[in-house]
Amino acid sequence: MPGISLKDVLKAQKLFDKEIVFHTPLEYNLSLSKRYNAEIYLKREDIQLVRSYKIRWSFNFINSLSKDERNLWVIAASAWNHAQWVALTCNNLKIKWTIFMPQTTPSQKIRKTKKFWWEYIEIKLVWDSFDEAYKNALKFSNETWWIFVHPFDDEKVIIWQATVWMEIIEDFKDQGIDYLLTPIWWWGLIAWVGSVFKEIMPLTKIIWVEPENAASMNLSVTNWKITSLDKANTIAEWTAVKTVWTKTFEIAKDIVDEFVSIPEWLIATTMLELLDDQWIILEWAGALSVAALEPIKDKIKGKKVVCILSWWNFDFAKLPEIQEISLKYLWLKRYFIVSFPQRPWALKEFLNTLWKWDDIVYFEYMKKTAKERWPALIWIETIDKDHFKNIIKSMEKHNIQFEDITENEMYFNFLV
Question: Which pTM value belongs to this model?
Answer without folding.
Answer: 0.76
